[in-house]
Amino acid sequence: MISKEQVLEAQNNWGNGVVKIGSLKENRVDCEKFASEFLDKLYAFQTGTVLFKPTKCEIEQFRPTKPEALSYFIAGENRACDEDKGFAIQPWTKVRFENSNLILEENRAIAMGNYFFTDVNGNEAKVEYTFGYKLINGELKIDVHHSSFPYTISEVTT
Q1: Of 23, 52, 113, 114, which sees the most CB atoms within 10 A?
Q2: What's the pLDDT tens digit per position in 104-137?
Q3: Residue 29 in 3-state DSSP?
C-alpha cells in the first residue's frame, strides 16, 4: 500500500525540483540536464503513458511526451511547443502543496488540492492540481498531472 508519507515526499521532491530548475536558468546546459533528469526521476514517461496538462498552455494544452513536458518547464530555442515560456525558470523560490485529499492504493495514489508557487518578490501564485502516481520499481512516478488556475467569476458589464 502506498503511504501518505510517500506521496508527501514525492510532492516535496517535485517542488524542490521546480525551484532548482529556476535556480539554474543562467546556466542553460546545467538547467537542461537537471530538468531532463527531473522528468526521468519523477514522471513515468519511460514506462508508459503520461497524461500531462500544465497550467499555462492555451494552444497545445496536453503534453504526452517528455520533450513536450521539458519544453513547458524550460522552453528555450529547441522547445517543442512555440507558446512555452519556461514555467520552471520563472524562477520560483518555494513550492508548497495543500492536499484536499488523497486516494491511496496498492500501486497507485492520487492527490488533489492547491499548490502555491512563491516568486523572488515573495508573491504567491495559487494553482489547482491533480497528480496521479504509479508505483514503479519502488518509486512513485507521476503519470497524471493536471494543473489549472482557480476559476474566478468575471464581472458582467452592462
Answers
A1: 52
A2: 999 999 999 999 999 999 999 999 999 999 999 9
A3: helix
Residue 139 grid cell: 518509486
Distance CA 38, CA 24 (A): 13
Q: What ranges in 24-158 are assigned the alpha helix state H? A: 28-42, 66-74
Q: How far is 45 from 88, CA to CA, in rounded Å?
A: 19
Question: How many whole angstroms separate alpha carbon 82 and alpha carbon 59?
Answer: 9
Which whole-number Å values give the CA distances from 109 to 13, 37, 99, 140, in the listed order? 16, 22, 13, 9
Give the separation between CA 99 and CA 80, rounded to whole angstroms: 31
